[in-house]
Amino acid sequence: MNYPASIQNELKYINSADFKLGAYIYMGMGKLNGRTVCIAVAYKIDYCIKKSEQFVKDDPNITFDHINKVRTGE
User: Fold this and answer.
1) Angle at CA of residue 51, ends 45 and 56, nearest 5°
2) Contact partners, residue 29, CB within 8 Å, separation at least 6
3) Per-residue confidence band for 1, with pLDDT thresholds at 50, 70 and 90
């Protein structure tokens, strides 16, 4: 899939030696009836994208919007 540069950089990061599993969580966000809702949470962005896409595919009322990257504990 052709992702924006920011997503491509994050995909490279999770496969680098600098990546520490559990330091961040990724939240797939969608829109439902004009509201922003969380549709997926994961420790790696690739899995978050996968689960977000599955959720949107299964429910036509939800559209994918963006992914939040949050430092664990914030």
Assistant:
1) 120
2) 36, 37, 38, 39, 64, 65, 66, 67, 68
3) low
Cα–Cα distance, 53 to 67 (Å, whole number) = 12
d(CA 15, CA 63): 28
**How far are the Cα atoms of 14, 20, 60, 61, 66 from residue 9, in angstroms, in the given order?**
9, 15, 29, 30, 15
> Is residue 74 helix, strand or coil?
coil
Strand 24-32 and strand 35-42: the pairing is: antiparallel
With a CB cutoff of 8 Å and minimum separation 6, the contacts of 65 are 29, 30, 31, 36
